[in-house]
Amino acid sequence: MRSDTRAGGRVGMIVAATAGVALAWLVVLPRVFRRNRDRMLKIGPFKKAITKYNDMARNISGSPRSSWGLLTHVGRRSGLSYQTSLGTCTYGDGFLLPLGYGPHSDWYRNLMAAGTGTLTWKGHNFQLERPELISGPDAMQAWRMTERILLRLAGIHDFVWLHAVTDQAEASPPDESALEHTSR
Fold it and tell me: CB under 8 Å to 64, separation ≥6 — which residues?
């Protein structure tokens, strides 16, 4: 009986430690990274960890069960196509994407330069245009309560609002209904 209690305590400690690491990754890292981006990317182990995390996130983003979207955008200098995993929320006639690392993020600058991108979300592809930088209570209220809490803890209050391409909304009702169906 005593060993069962100890084993349960160890499991609880492991779960608590895992939750603590996850919370630190989601809350503390964006705050630190926004202020020290260039210095942090020069650190080899940190850069490798970020690369590995981004690769894993890209594999699940955009899938029907993931709340993360996969943004495809074109490099402003290279012209190459890139994919970035981002938290995603429906908003108005399109989607909100949080600026976790600030307006100096490459994906944001690429998106603003091109003016368009494609978002794979909940298993559907959406052509998006007219990116707008927005912040404030309306944008924050679009997120579910748990996501709002994490966004506030991480100090994220700026978002990119991408509008659905108007031709697409008229031409393909399945994607439009998918957008309405999965909004909450």
Answer: 122, 123
Strand partners, 81: 74
Enumerate the domain spans of the chain: 2-181
Which residues make beta-bridge pairs with 134? 159
| 3-state per-residue secondary structure call for 16-28 | HHHHHHHHHHHHH
The amino acid that residue 53 corresponds to is Y
Place of tokens 């069960």: 65
Indicate the CATH number of 2-181 among 3.40.50.720, 3.30.70.1530, 2.30.110.10, 3.40.50.1380: 2.30.110.10
The pair of three-digit structure tokens given for residue 69, joined into one six-digit string: 């979207």
This prediction's pTM: 0.69
Could you report the per-residue pLDDT of 94-130, keeping only the tens digit for each?
999 999 888 888 999 999 999 999 999 999 999 999 9
Question: Quick check: 151 and 131 in contact, CB under 8 A?
Answer: no
Give the single-character DSSP code of 69: E
Q: Which of 91, 82, 71 is nearest to 139 (CA)?
A: 91
In angstroms, the CA 81 to CA 79 distance is 7
Using CA atoms, how far residue 80 sits from 4, 75, 87, 107, 162, in Å, is 56, 5, 23, 12, 20
CA distance readout (Å), 7 to 1, 12, 17, 18, 90? 10, 9, 15, 16, 43
